[in-house]
């Protein structure tokens, strides 16, 4: 038992990787203080995962901990963490379920979800106290104390040796909703409804904000391109109402105009998709990003499917359609992240943590408008790979979104509730903010049509319409080649170019609509097996377990014996824990044993 613990404590040599200045500074502060709890707030795209795994590697090598447990919001992030850990020389198992008791041999720990922890907190408590453990709580705002997840996290990891909390967005909680292992101070605030109050604001041990990351070229600067348009709909009284997105008047009318604009049957969506595709083409051909891609964020699966058909019609190419309840969603995200597809249409799957560095364009085609979700979604397109890159977000010109865009660089504090639906002990979906509540009469709402027009570019809180540039200063051809790249085009010049292209896009969409014989079916994109999985320890173990089970079935069929009997004989022939907990070496030996029985 002691030798096993010693083996777990020694992490493999990690891949050499230079640290960013903030990561090095945060590590130095941690090592100076050697705290039990440490909270890091770093803007999306800054590299929180690298920081956490570098710290874990150092603690393992110094034998200050013998195990690492990562808790994250979604199943896809489990795979992402495990792959990142493999590159750092740390073997974390992302497939360990609550049905398997001990941590598998040959690993330094595992990755789980908040939902799994909530399912069996005492099991996770036993795993985290069996040996000295570093627990990494990714996006810790999911663990609000007033919620079931927070209570479970407290119970599971209250006695762990070390705890590292990570978040991409500072958060605020109510006085009776404390997140475990986070320090708070009382703080007055003004809510989104304009009313103030007293709450608790978290105090990070190290903070790295968007402004600092932008100055360090760690994240891309963001250009917000807002599109207005006239929406027409029929209300519950049977009256046809028309209103502009940007001049809707009351909040109720604004919401109905917004909802109509997002309807797939109108012209607002295809127009903005065409503008988005135009931007991707520019980035690939002239912007120094030959693999540039875009993300379309939809409110629900029906809209996502409809938007995917529009993408094919407008661009001539099928997008990657990533739905949260699709069992292949994680594989599709990986394929899109490493492939060459131009656009992915997503529901639920692109907010916090999902890493697609080549994604530089986002189309906001949802009515969601909470500040936390907005920051997380925009965070998917700001991860910089080179100093010349920039991000573009296309969005409806409605006040709630324009307000969020204008204040993006401010430090906001929020708390996110957990999802209401958990299947077994697995978390398949990431929670989206609830849809805006609508009056009962809206049940009879009928969207009729909506057009789209470029409204303005939002930069530094100022709207640039493109109409203020003197006629004597037309855009030169070389200027057009650098749409939106800060330092090469001003915000006003960018707006002028978008406005100029607006009519061209409208003509292109009309031509596509008349010439394309759309059957409504999207071509099937074949799944390709991962070619680079060899050598990834946790992936090897998962495949070996599947192969052992297949061979057991063949032996059982050949010998007319129950599967359980074959498994029992196999464990006698090759001693060790059940296959679900067995190491790679044991699984390989069992595989060879089974082959001799056929």
UniProtKB/TrEMBL annotation:
* A GO molecular function held by the record: hydrolase activity
Ordered alphabetically, the record's keywords are: ATP-binding, Helicase, Hydrolase, Nucleotide-binding
Q: Which GO terms describe its cellular component?
A: cytosol
Q: Which residues form a coiled coil?
A: none
Going by the entry's taxonomy, the superkingdom of the source organism is recorded as: Bacteria
User: Does this entry carry the keyword Lipid biosynthesis?
Assistant: no
Q: Where is this region: Disordered?
A: 415-434, 515-536
Q: What range(s) does the Helicase ATP-binding domain occupy? A: 29-188
User: What name appears for this protein in its UniProt entry?
Assistant: Superfamily II DNA or RNA helicase
Species whose genome carries this gene? Geodermatophilus poikilotrophus
Q: What is the lineage of its organism?
A: Bacteria, Bacillati, Actinomycetota, Actinomycetes, Geodermatophilales
